[in-house]
């Protein structure tokens, strides 16, 4: 049977509902209690958009809180989160992925469909490597050891923060979602080695045939064509290239899918917001209502990239 999975980006509700809640305000933390898994990653919201991202499934939700691992299990979807130190990043990432994926497998949720990664100082050095590369190596090692095939990677986000700590959280299902690649881009797991000794292991998007209809979970998407960054230092051109990539992913997944229900925009420089907002408004002007958009300050993994956009079509 198709899994039940729902996602909304919206205002905080007074009666807290069951599910995964990602908030951007308050001290960085992860906790699972009752029917809720609450995550405040080390990101900075760009006020006044203090939206809450909520994901939920069907049936009673059961939580398990055993730091560094926090779980929330519905009938046919599992949310899992890991919070720990981000030093040394390679080892911590390897452990986080190993523990998260083992916990998913033990509960019968073999297939991670979507994963988010946040950690500090993404352009800093660790053992003569950029920390983003150390992260890629730790992640690839864990996924290899667990024999996750390259064509079955989850959609992903990896963003640098200004608060220490590694936050990894995911959505896993019992049956696989379909990985979608972007025909305008080389698959990240086939990037040349100059970006990282172990290539980034993620799908550009995953398409889940959910009970209520198809859902497309779109990875963090940036101004990259082929494997190369485009339009260094030109935020408007980067925004236009990024929405072309989002459009290409929508095409690849199937135009019968609705447009994005919500988007999250990560900006390296908050002052670029108005320029990027104009590009997004133009792109989705035919949609009514258009996507709910959340704005966050964050460091994209390549220093020349000024923004990244992720989202959900459902
Ligand atoms: C890119 O397309 C831009 O390493 O998990 C976007 C989303 C990016 C996820 C990751 C990296 C990751 O390569 C960067």
Short descriptors:
314 residues; alpha+beta; 60s Ribosomal Protein L30, Chain: A; seven-stranded mixed beta sheet; six-stranded mixed beta sheet; 4 helices; globular; binds 3-(2-carboxyethyl)benzoic acid
As an assembly, this protein is: single chain
* Strand content bin: 35-45%
Low-confidence stretches: none
Determine the CATH topology of the domain at 6-220: 60s Ribosomal Protein L30, Chain: A
SSE sequence, one letter per element: EEEEEEEEEHEEEHEEEEEEEHEHEE
- Going across the biggest sheet, name each strand in turn: 5-21-20-22-17-16-15
In CATH terms, what is the architecture of the domain at 6-220?
A: 2-Layer Sandwich
Structural class: alpha+beta
For CATH, the homologous superfamily of the domain at 6-220 is named as PurM-like, N-terminal domain
Termini separation comes to: 18 Å
Figure out the total of helices: 4
Q: Sheet with the most strands?
A: 7 strands, mixed
* Overall pLDDT metric: 97
As a whole number of angstroms, the C-alpha radius of gyration is 18 Å
Principal-axis shape: globular
Question: Share of helix among residues?
Answer: 10-25%
Number of strands: 22
Bound molecules: 3-(2-carboxyethyl)benzoic acid
**In CATH's first tier, which class of the domain at 6-220 applies?**
Alpha Beta
How would you portray this structure in words?
The chain has 314 residues and is an alpha+beta fold. The protein has a domain at 6-220: 60s Ribosomal Protein L30, Chain: A (2-Layer Sandwich). 20% of the residues lie in helices and 37% in strands. The chain contains 4 helices and 22 strands. The chain has helices spanning 89-106, 131-145, 235-253, 273-283; strands at residues 6-10, 19-22, 29-33, 36-40, 44-45, 52-56, 62-66, 69-73, 77-84, 111-120, 125-126, 129-130, 155-161, 166-173, 178-180, 205-210, 213-221, 224-225, 228-229, 260-267, 292-297, 307-313. The strands form 5 sheets. A 7-stranded mixed β-sheet has the order 5-21-20-22-17-16-15, with helices on one face. Helix 3 (235-253) packs parallel to helix 4 (273-283). The longest helix has 19 residues, at 235-253. The protein is globular and about 45 Å long. The model has no long low-confidence stretch (mean pLDDT 97). Residues 117, 156-158, 188, 200, 202, 219-220, 222, 224, 301, 308 line the site of 3-(2-carboxyethyl)benzoic acid.
């Amino acid at each position: 049977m198709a899994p039940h999975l729902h996602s909304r980006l919206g205002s905080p509700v007074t009666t807290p509902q069951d599910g995964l809640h990602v908030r951007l305000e308050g001290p960085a933390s992860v906790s699972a209690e009752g029917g809720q898994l609450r995550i405040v990653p080390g990101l900075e919201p760009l006020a006044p958009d203090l939206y809450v991202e909520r994901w939920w499934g069907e049936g009673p939700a059961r939580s398990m809180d055993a730091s560094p691992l926090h779980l929330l299990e519905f009938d046919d979807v599992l949310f899992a989160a890991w919070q720990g130190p981000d030093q040394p990043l390679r080892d911590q990432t390897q452990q986080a992925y190993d523990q998260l994926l083992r916990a998913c497998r033990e509960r019968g949720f073999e297939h991670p469909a979507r994963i988010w990664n946040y950690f500090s100082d993404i352009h800093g050095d660790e053992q003569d490597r950029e920390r983003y590369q150390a992260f890629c190596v730790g992640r690839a090692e864990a996924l290899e050891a667990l024999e996750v095939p390259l064509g079955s990677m989850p959609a992903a986000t990896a963003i640098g923060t200004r608060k220490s700590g590694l936050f990894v959280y995911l959505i896993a299902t019992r049956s696989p979602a379909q990985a979608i690649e972007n025909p305008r881009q080389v698959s990240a797991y086939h990037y040349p080695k100059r970006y990282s000794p172990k290539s980034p292991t993620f799908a550009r998007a995953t398409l889940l045939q959910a009970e209520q209809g198809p859902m497309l979970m779109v990875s963090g998407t940036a101004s990259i064509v082929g494997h190369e960054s485009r339009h260094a230092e030109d935020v408007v051109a980067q925004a236009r290239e990024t929405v072309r990539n989002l459009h290409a992913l929508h095409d690849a997944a199937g135009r019968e899918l609705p447009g994005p229900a919500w988007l999250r925009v990560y900006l390296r420089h908050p002052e670029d917001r108005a320029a990027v907002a104009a590009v997004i408004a133009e792109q989705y002007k035919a949609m009514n209502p258009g996507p709910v958009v959340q704005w966050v300050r964050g460091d994209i993994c390549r220093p020349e990239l000024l923004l990244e956009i992720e989202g959900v079509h459902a």
